[in-house]
Amino acid sequence: MLETSARLLRLLSLLQSPRDWTGAELAERLDVDVRTVRRDIDKLRTLGYPVDATPGVAGYRLGAGAKLPPLLLDDDEAVAVALGLRTAAGGTIAGIEDSSLRALAKLEQVLPARLRYRVSMLQAATVTVPAGGPTVDPDVLTAVAAAIRDNHRLRFDYRTHDGATSVRATEPHRLVHTGRRWYLVGWDVDRADWRTYRVDRLLPRIPTGPRFIPREAPDADLTGYLSRGVTTAPYRYAARITLRVAAEVAAERIAPTVGVIEAVDAESCVLRTGSDSLDELAIYVAGFGFPFRVHEPPELVTHLRELAARLGAAAG
C-alpha cells in the first residue's frame, strides 16, 4: 500500500483525467478500501482541490475552484507545456510573452534532469521564425471563445481592410488559427449569411447578446472554408491557375491564407486565389518559380501577355 502522501498524489493524478471515477474504481487503483478513498478525497478538498461528487453513483471528478491548485503532469505533458510556453512567448497573442516566460521559468525549475534534457535538445534543434502578422489581445480571444462556448450572440466593432468601422452582430461558431492570424467564423445576423472576420480587427461589445441555437457549420472542412473566404471571395479578381507541380510541393510555398490548392494528379494542381490588383496577381504567381497556366480571369490572361511583352522589350 502506498504511503498517505504518495497515495494522495496518485489519487490527484487519476482525478485530473477527464472522466468520473466511482469510489470502487479509485479504491481498486489505489489498493485501499472505499472508506479510505473518501477520507483522501476530504484531504484533497482541505488542500484546496475542488473534488466534485456525482449524485447517485458516488462518482468523483476534479472540478473548477476559486483558485488554481497545483497540477500534475506526466513526462510527455510536461515537455509539451514547456515547448508550448516557449512558442507562446513569441506568438501572435499580444501581452502574454512575459507571462509565458514566467510560467516557463517555474516549470523548468522543477523539471527532472531527463525532461530538462529533452526540452533543451528540442529547443536547440528548433528555429522559430517570428509570425510577423498582427497580434491579438488575449482578452478579445477569451471573450469570443466564451461567446462560442455559451452560444451567446456577439456584438463587436469591426474594422475592414480599408479602415472603415461598423458594428456587427453574429452567432459565433468557431475560432480558426492559421499560424499567422486568428479568424472568427460566424453567422452574421444582419446579413443573414456566414462571414469570416479577422480577430485582430474586432472589439467585442459588452454585454453579449441573447442565447442562440447553434446552426450547422457552413462546411465540414472549416479550414478549407476559411481559405476560400479569405483568398478569393473578398477580391475583385478571382483567379484559377494550374501549377505544374504536385499539390504537396505547392503547399510548401503557398500559405492557406493566400490560396486554395486542389490536387489534379501527381504532377499538377489547381490554385484558386484572388486580388484587387492584376499586377499583384501576375507578379505573385510568377514568383513561385513553378510552371503555370492561367485559366481565369480573362483580364489576368491579357494582362500577363502585355506584361510579358513589356518585360521582353526591357530585356532586349
Structural write-up:
The chain has 316 residues and is of the alpha+beta class. The protein is built from 11 helices and 12 strands. The chain has helices at 4-15, 23-30, 34-46, 75-88, 97-110, 113-124, 138-150, 222-231, 247-253, 278-286, 298-315; strands at 21-22, 51-54, 59-62, 154-159, 165-177, 182-188, 193-198, 202-204, 237-243, 259-265, 268-275, 292-296. It has a 5-stranded antiparallel sheet, sandwiched between helices. It has a 4-stranded antiparallel sheet with strand order 10-11-9-12. A hairpin with a 5-residue loop joins strand 4 and strand 5. Helix 1 packs across helix 3, helix 2 (23-30) packs across helix 3 (34-46) and helix 10 (278-286) crosses helix 11 (298-315). It starts with a helix and ends with a helix.
Low-confidence stretches: none
User: Mean pLDDT score, rounded?
Assistant: 83
Overall radius of gyration: 27 Å
Assembly status: single chain
The total strand number stands at 12
Helix count, per DSSP?
Answer: 11
The structure class reads alpha+beta
How far apart are the first and last residues' alpha carbons, in Å?
88 Å
In which range does the helix fraction lie?
A: 40-55%
Order of helices and strands: HEHHEEHHHHEEEEEHEHEEHEH
Shape: elongated
- Strand percentage lies at 15-25%
Please outline the major beta sheet: 5 strands, antiparallel
> How do the strands of the widest beta sheet line up side by side?
7-6-5-4-8
